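Holo model, KG4. Inputs:
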Amino acid sequence: MARRTALILGIETSCDETAAAVVSWEGEILSSIVASQDELHARFGGVVPEVASRRHLELIAPVIEEVLTDEVEAIAVTSRPGLIGALLVGVSAAKALAWARRLPLMPVNHLHGHVASLYLRPLDLQPPFTCLLASGGHTMLLDVQDRSGYTVLGTTLDDAAGEAFDKGARLLGLGYPGGREIDALAKQGDPTAYDFPVARVPGLDFSFSGLKTSLLYKVRDLAPQELEARRADLAASYQRAIVRALVERLEAAGGERIAVVGGVAANSELRAALPDAALAPLPLCTDNAAMIASAGRYTDPVPYPDYLSLDARATA
Ligand code: KG4
Ligand code: ZN
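Output:
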């Protein structure tokens, strides 16, 4: 593919992170800022869409200003999937800036963005590979043959893996987002203390809702002091079950090379269980704009001013 731009500005607002980054065509990250809204949503135990949109509105201009330079020659923005009000803030900002500077705009699929976190330097992973994308909103197995896209091999039939972590953390009385909390607490627990079911659905799909229900019953059966004493064991056993489900499916999918991306790719037990896999670097696992700029390198640019009619979309 011919070199199109020197520097790309990436913008990401699909959920509860307001992020901007500048990335070179070669995949070097020049700057990357993620303003997390975790604390804002923690007291609700999850993301409140309307609250997220309002905070994106407050943060978007200062976050972009922090990374923007004169050398930016194209803008990549997450246009789908995600919370519609949150996406609209990023898409509107991207359109306004692109219009003011007469720049082309690349509308990026957030999931393609997660995969493209692997294409940034120094990792610079070359397809083909089989990719597990595990985040708060999605759990998918992807066949990646080239950098411009992927084919979906399997997906979750109910909850996403990150959602299973978040809901499990809530049942255990831990904070939000729950993945990180369970990961930390599990280090003090015994992963063999409890048996959790690993759902075996046909094909390469996933299911995590039974696991969550099983944790609910185990927590319910414990008196408050008992729960306190067993919390780390429950966290460790629950995490083990999620990791086992993910690894089993990855192995079933086959493929010479495997890669893991998305927020759950930050999980220490999952990373340890896949020593030969290409793992997204830790700061690029959870939502960020460097991965969006990276995907923008492999997305057809919409020229000025055609993109003014571009819409955000809640679905992929
Ligand atoms: O990719 P991401 O930032 O947002 C989405 O696109 O959904 O993923 C967020 C998810 C949350 O569910 C969070 O609990 C999970 O990633 N997560 C983790 C860890 N860090 C974040 N899950 C397990 N272990 C972690 N260390
Ligand atoms: Zn994400």
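The radius of gyration is 20 Å. The beta strands are 7-12, 17-24, 29-36, 72-80, 105-109, 129-134, 139-144, 151-155, 258-261, 278-279.
Archived with the compound record.
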